[in-house]
Amino acid sequence: MIVVAQKKTVFFLLAFIFMGGVSASAITLGLHPNMNNWKKEAIVITDVKTDKKVVALTFDDGPDPVNTPLLLDVLKKHDAKATFFLLGIKVEKNPDLVKRMSDEKHELGNHSYSHADFNRHDDDFVRAEIQRGNAAIKKITGKKPHLFRPPGGYLSYKMVDMIREEKQIIAYWTYQQDSKDWRNIKASRIADHIISNLKPGQIIILHDGTSNGSETVKAVDLLIPRLYEEGYRLVTVSELISMEKRE
Ligand SMILES: [Zn+2]
Predict the structure, then answer these.
(1) Mean pLDDT calculated for residue range 64-70
(2) Of 111, 193, 207, 208, which one is the catalytic site residue?
(3) Catalytic annotation on 61?
(4) CA of 196 to the centre of ligand 1 (A)
(5) What is the distance in angstroms between the CA of the first residue and the CA of the last residue of the chain?
(6) What is the pTM for the complete model shown?
(7) Which domains does the chain have, with CATH numbers?
């Protein structure tokens, strides 16, 4: 019995070390010990309880001068609204694209200023990343974003406090709806992943600002008609939050 117990302990220790060393977003999602409390408090949102067939498409790490205009064209073609989590540094370089997103009624959220690894920096740096990201968007739209999505899915008690102080909400994503589209994945596979995991109230994470962005744009063009065929409607993350079914 003792041997068994020791083996188990070693297994859990190894599992813990392994998971601690991997910063992949999917693992972070379930791993933070306070995640469920933050979700109850609605300071962190991963999905929304609803009977209605609605989901939110979200796009990270842009705006990208090549892929984002194509994505906006695709969204317009299908009359779809999305939420963009923007990097302040790219917002400053592409103000016209940000203006276009805003004019076309997409929601703009903050994804930090430079996508720095928050694990490697102190509180002042993290606060500055959040505030500079907010300021870059506000300078163009005149409106401070309501939503923040931390780079790499980073979460800490201190950072959540900072977001409370900013009177914002952390818009995470639905674990099952992370297709890892930023990897070298073809459009059809990205769309298939989303359709086969589809449920009402989900927040779907995609990336227009990474190197596989052109496949993501093609995926969205395949995906939206299929979502409509399934009877789904696309809303922004803030609209989705406002539709939450209260018990
Ligand atoms: Zn990102």
Answers:
(1) 98
(2) 207
(3) no
(4) 24
(5) 46
(6) 0.88
(7) 23-242 (3.20.20.370)
